[in-house]
Specification:
B: mainly alpha, MetI-like fold, two-stranded antiparallel sheet, 13 helices, C: alpha/beta, D-Maltodextrin-Binding Protein, domain 2, about 10% strand, globular
Amino acid sequence: MVAIRITGVTKSFGEVPVLRGIDLEIGHSEFVVFVGPSGCGKSTLLRVIAGLEQATSGDIHFDDRRITDVAPAKRGVAMVFQSYALYPHMTVAENMTMSLRLAGVPKPERRRRAEEVAKMLQLTPLLDRKPAALSGGQRQRVAIGRAIVRQPDVFLFDEPLSNLDAALRVETRVGITKLHRTLGNTMIYVTHDQVEAMTMADRIVILDQGRVAQVGTPLELYRRPANAFVAGFLGSPKMNFIKADEISRSGSSIRLKLASGSDIEVNAAATDKVALFGIRPEHLTVANEGPIAGTVAAVEHLGSETLIYVETSADTLIVKAGENATTQPGDRVNLRPEPNAIHLFAADGRSVAGAPNH
Amino acid sequence: MLQDWRFWFLAPMVLALGIVVLFPSGYLVWMSVTHWIVTDPSVYFDGVQNFATLFRSASFASAVQVTALYLVLSTILMLILAFGLALALSGPNSPGFIRAIVVMPLVIPPVVAGFTWRFLMNGEMGFLGAFVLPNVGITTNMLANPTGALISIVIADVWSRTPFMFLIFLAALQAIPRDHYEAIRLDGASALQEFWLVTLPMMRSAVVIALLFRVIDALNTFELIYVMTKGGPGRSTQTLSLLGWKTAFQGFDFGGAAALGVVMLVVTTVCASIVYRRFLRMPS
Amino acid sequence: MLKKLLTGGSAALVAGLLASAAPAQAETTINVVGFGAGFAWADLFGPSGTEKTQALLDFEKKEGIVINMEYADEDVARQKVLLDLVNGTGNYDLVMLGSDGAVQTYSAAGYLEPLDGYADKATDYFDAKKVYAPFLEANRVDGQLWGLPYYSFGAGVLYRKDIFDKYGITSFPKTTEELEKALQTVKDGLAKDGITDVYPLTMRGAPGEEPSLDLTGFVYAYAGDSAWFEGGADTPAKIKETGAKPDFTGKFKPGFDTFVRWSKEFGPPGIATHTWVDMMNLYAQGKAVVLMPSAINGFAGLGSSEVAAVKENSVFAPSPVGPSGKAIQSFWTFSVGMSKYAKDKEAAYKALAFLTSQPVMENFATQIGWPYTTYPEIMHGPILTGKWPKETLDAIEASFNDAEPHYFPYIPELTEFMDKIGTAASESISGSTTTDEALNNLQVWATDRMERAGYYKK
């Protein structure tokens, strides 16, 4: 249970920069999720923390201990790999207690620890099997068990659920969250799946092209994205973006010309010039009157909700409606954004006015 | 089975295999129990006489010894070399042209390899035998000395066949996921422990397959030895396959040669199936 | 090996099927198998062995016979002959035969057609009276002729006169005893001059049947007869009649001992693995003073030698005489015989006679340029006299006429015996056994082998 402080960490593979200067603090017993698209550097950052990659520059501290140059095994971290990395020639028990064996712990003690952890993860009957004889979910639990046996200060998860089917993924997600509550360790979890990030994290770190795009609790990020990238990354379906031109501004009221529609009056105290108008699908409604007009291209009934795809003169917008929506493809419709849920961004993507009251 | 219509789709394959595999083996066994010497006009069933003669002969005893020695020496050397080279050259940064050079001997036919090494090792004119070795204090004529000749053959054979093993090992090494190494590093393993606990166990089937190939290959080695020493000096490099050739084509004793063939077939099959059962079967 | 044996057998089988299915041709086709493409019959089949020259086409047109030559490596060719004859396919009408086993074995097994009955069938091409008698004699088993000679040689010595002169030996020794002294003188002289890479003697001592041609020639010179079996019995009939047992530990020993001793003391260190190629190369490179008793291997090297001293100072001498009063032998002929299963034997003989005829042999002599030929008329003809001094040719001719081709027994098991004898010598030279052990092993094996072959059944 340590706090982690990352200061100015960069990492390049040859000429290619992958991490471009990361500063981050992770608190005691916090569950932090690194999320971002492929190539954003989230896995590399995790591996730098584990010590599997050497940072090109910058420092990492676990509490007050500088571990930048400490060997991976000495950092007090345990990692669960995407592939699980179980040794195929060893039994479940041997796999789980490899670290103890290498540390010279006697065999009976190793067995005792393996049994203890197995009980926690319902692996007891599988202890003497080899990985080849286990299901995907069981292997996943063994990989977690192996990490638990080590009693590390920090748990590192590298996309641990991506090889599981959807149902098992939900189940395991809950399992890991529970585990965090039980053990209370600091955990860092890497995923590209924003649902995992939203559901599991105490705090989310969103990475974009080797930089931290934003750090915060899931709802903070959802409600007050610092920029268009974060706004677009979190939320499903993703936020609708419409190009906008400022026509006039008076006090806290801004008049915008939307690329796909008519003028709209927004109440916001924007500091910079607005270039992009953002609105989440759940904050658009189909109405008789509205600033955005278009034709329904497709309708998806998902049961509890309905997704309506509306083609406007510039973009296709998505509307999330209730389960009883009656709109048909081909209908001419008008869309009305909920005034309190509008996001405005500057030309460089920075958020210039949120929708604080949402 | 015959009532099952599906069998008849397999039948042509079974028949073809039977002809290709079983017929020659059956013919061999038939020959091995036949008194069939070209110099003797009468050909007749002779029971185990060919085997009795074979087991009594000094040539057979020495050939078994030579074959075993050659097999063990060359295999050990090859294993070490191939493994070492594979480890050294498996990294993503190792230059491809070095791998190409290592593999090159594989494409040189054994006859050519044999001639090349024979000329290299020649004690009167060869580059190695006449210039290099004497200069490092080895004045024994390698090909003319019983031990030297065997060593020369082992060297030539290792040179010629190591690349094959190297390729098997290289492929196996590169197939070991990086995660396994990282996991054990996190668990606190040293480089040596990494090798013992991950590399070696995960290479096991590759090693066993390479050994299987090797044993069969070694028992069949003929051209290389024939060209380099003709089995000499004396009988000191006369392996079972050379003895078989001589029995058939110089002694004209087809029955005797076939008996030797049957013995080799049985030995090879037994060795191979032990290795296979012991090491290669998947755990159930 | 098994693979070879089996695929060889089935290949012969398949080839036989194909051959019998081939449509009948107006002309007779004679198939020949041999080795040495570009060497043997290069005047007929070209340097590649795949063409047909005008001389051959003329013959084919005149006689209505098509000759198909199939060349292979020597060992492969020998296997092809064996498998073809054993299977009785008649694929090959004419087969290459060496006088060191093949003639004896195949004639005894009944695979060959005796040629005596054809002697007057194609005298335009081959007339037995016109060739050196020993070359025919070498192909005679049990009084019957089984092959006509092509490439043949007798015993002799090729030596470096300059080096002999240098160490005060003015003429080449006539006896083995004198020669041993001379070799010692040369050895001492070379040592004194600090020359370490020239050896007094080069011979062949590799295991296998080939070096035995020379080794058994030593035995003959020391024993006065072949000395393999008691009383010098040298045919199956004589062995059976007298019940002669192998005698390898008896009269065979002195010649064997000498061969081994000379090899060890005067020969190059690798001699226990040397074949004719090595002895030829060593001599050609000027690294050996005396090459014997198969002098032809020296002549073979002279042509390609790049050492002036070797080219200028090599002199032929007759093979020295051993204690028995007989000379060391080395006699071989590469002959062509006819398969018992040849379909048109008259045509096959005609082709055979043509292949060994005087014009063909003249072309061969022109091509190789060595002072060796099967016809006296060629020996004294312009091709060889223009190239070699008369005394050399006379001496070589004398070695043909004085030769005893049957200096080893003519028994069907000859190849196997030659192999074991050669291997025993190789073992002794390399020092892996003593000569006594080697000969004892040979004796035990030979006794067993002869008994197995039924020689001593009453």
